[in-house]
Amino acid sequence: MKKIVVLAFILLLGCQKKRITNDTIVGIQAYKGFPKAKTDSLAKTIASFYTIKTIILPEIDLPKSAFIQVKSARYRADSIINIQKKQKKDTIDYILGLTHKDISTTKKDKSGKTKEPSYKYEDWGIMGLAYCPGNSCIISSFRLQHKDEDLYFLRIKKVTIHELGHNLGLPHCPNKKCVMTDAVESIATIDNASLALCSLCKQKIQ
C-alpha cells in the first residue's frame, strides 16, 4: 500500500489559553457524506474529553467557494474555517467541521512565506486546520483511512481533539505521547500519540 504522508496543520495566531466552562458549547458541523454514527460518537468524545457541551448541527454541503482543483479536487481548509467562523451562531462558542473530503492549505515557514519547494507546499493536503486560539476548525478523515476500522476512527478522534485543542488555545506539545503533538508530516506520529493530554497541557486548559 502506498504510504500517504500527511500533516495536521494549524494556523498559529498566538496561542493563548481560552476560558472554558461546563456551559461552553461546541457545534458539530458534519458536511454531507460524513457518517452520522461517527458524528454522534465524536460529539460524545469531545463532550467527555473537555467536559463541555456539544450539539450536532444540521448536515450541509461543503462551501462551493472553498473548492479547488490544483493538484487534485479538494477543498481549502482555510476558506472553510473562515466561512464557519462568519456563519457561527451566537448560541454556540465553537464550530467544528467534519468532512470525508480531502482538504488543503498553504504551508508557511516562520516568516510567513510559503515553504520551499513552493509547488509542493502552495496547496498542501492536510488532516485538520484550526485557529489558535479561535472558534472554528475543520477535520478531514480523507488522509486518516486504514483497513482497520478501529484504528481509522481512533485517528479521527485524535485529530478532532487536537484541532479543538488549538481553538481552546493549546499550542503544539513537545511530548510525543500527548494528543497535541505536531504530526510533522507523518501519520505515524498520530498513531504513536495517546488520546490524552499530557500533564502540562492539562494545566494549561484547566
UniProtKB/TrEMBL annotation:
It comes from the Bacteria. Its cofactor is Zn(2+). This is Matrixin family metalloprotease. The keyword Protease applies. InterPro entries: MetalloPept_cat_dom_sf (IPR024079), Pept_M54_archaemetzincn (IPR012962). Pfam families: Peptidase_M54. Its EC number is 3.4.24.-. Keywords: Hydrolase, Metal-binding, Metalloprotease, Protease, Zinc. SUPFAM superfamilies: Metalloproteases ('zincins'), catalytic domain (SSF55486). PANTHER family: ARCHAEMETZINCIN, ARCHAEMETZINCIN-2. It is an enzyme of class 3 (hydrolase). One of its GO terms (molecular function) is metallopeptidase activity.
